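Morning!

As promised:
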Amino acid sequence: MPAQQNANVIALQLEKVRDKVPLLYERDDILLTMIQQRGDVEKISSRNLRLPLQVNPGGKAGSYNADGGDLGRGSGTQYDVAQVSPIFFRFAIEITKLVEYATTGRERAIENAAKREVANGMKQFRAFLDKLIQTAGNGVLGTISAVSGTTFTMTVPCGAALVYPGQTIQIYDTTLTTNRNIAASVTTNVVTADPITTQQISVDNVPTGTVATDVIVHDGLSGAQPVSLYGIKYHQNNSTTGTWLNLNRATYPVQLQTPRVNAGNAALTPANVRLAINKVRKALGINHLSKLIAYMAVEQEHAWENLGITVSSIIKEGGGGNGNDLDLLFTGRKTMSGIPIKSSVNADQTRVDFLDLAHWGRAVLKDIDFYEVNGNTVFPIYGASGGLAASYIFYFDTAFQLWSDSPRSGAYIDTLARPSGY
Amino acid sequence: MAEPKGLAAIPRLRPGERRQDSARNDNLQNLVGKIQVVRETHDTPEGVARRLEAAGGRNRFGEPNYRVVWGWNRLAWIGGKFEDRDAHGDLVREVVELRLEPKYPQVNRWHVERWVPPETYGSPREWYANTVETANGASVPALGPYPERGEYEHCFTLQGPKGDFVQLTPTIVEHVARAIEWAKRFPKAKQRGMLYEKESREERNYEEWAYTLMDDAAPALHGQPFVTVK
């Protein structure tokens, strides 16, 4: 069967499942998709999305002399405008000619292969975006603490958690100024990653000049100080310098600061948790916790279990073996001092974030879909000679950015120790 | 919740019927209509406390390791700068002080708590070093004084999977206490393994769901009706 005909078959199969792609993407089991596309900003143009923020209340309160005294002037609410611009993300999937041979080339078999690739690809794409949401908005997926041949030992937090085998990465110097891959004209791919024990990754090519303290960013970024998805560490930040959604943090040092509890490299304690939650309550009102979630890595969920004050996963996951009707009670979410826990293998292992997702949103320029050119969604690959290569390619793409309209509505505990045994 | 006794004792009237002492009743009804219960408190039934004590034992101070409290009854110290806001969320005042406030956000639910020894919170010096907040020139311990006799911490909120109210019974809370104590006997490595297994299972669930979704999009035999062959 000629290659172009086979590509057409795959295109036909992709078209059959096209309307399922948004469903695959939007399933709300990861933090990214738990953050809703907010109706008021669902679609934006290529111009920046503008978020009006009430930064200071208006009005002048005080006593006055009723015996002819001056009541004074008033003031109005002070507003400023935060701005969000979308980032384009893509995920490329190739199907090789081998699929055709391995599946005897029948249409039904190719259909299965195409469906499998769409499902697998979307799973990986969501995982990639979920990893990005853990970052500080600059695309940094990890920091190298030691280089040994083609093996990097990565600094905790993050460690090797935010990369996956086969991923193309780029290496920048610690100031995010020099892109070592571009300087050395080398492409670097992750070969293996161990995010649990050794925190090491191995790569196929190490660009010249790579040293400890260098950082790893995702593919597609270029130039100094790259901008990527504004993740948790961008919005949940107590810094008073730099910018936040185009606003100068120094101008609103209180309003843009997320309450922080510094654990000082000690283990998680109930006191840390109460301190963080209380900071939100003091800022927003004592009973203003209904929409918070406690977002953390599996390691910190384990640390919380180690305190022996919560119903362990051993019970919740059925290890009790009693089959008691009361176990139904445990099917609800596990909580941290009454706040529902959402854990992730991608989250920072030394941090617990209390997020009020009602204040978070996704500004979407382009919905998730296959990348399309003149009605085509599958494209042939060309070999080095200029002839056809024995594979076809298709892409998912989307353009969006994350925003929060109230950084003070959350809190976080950082510099937590990881429980022993990791 | 059951109807309050005071109201239940008033005989019901048929439509159009008017009681002779209607003026007094109108006043009563107006009054009842205006009463808004803002804080409902309940004491823990003795039977429940006894069952919990039997299940979880006592601590070094002779107090039960487990207890159950009603949300509105459970107050804790919160210190620092409070920003009091009105119903619209607008700032009314800022004040630096120590307040006793409900400890848990679910104030209308029963909560099971477990006693945590004081050493969990570090030394008094560490406690104050970590919790004192300074605002407007005043220093306040954000969690109140050091818990010298330990503290009861949140284990479990009695509510359904969707947050619906679950009535307190001795059996439920005893089960919670025994489950927590039972799980403590397992090595930490096994507990950790279960957490990772949970994450892996969620990933597998997604995969299975995704493949099913794909199959629905392109059904077997391209959606052609099956023909029964005899």
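The longest strand of chain B covers residues 91-102.

Hope this helps with the figure draft.
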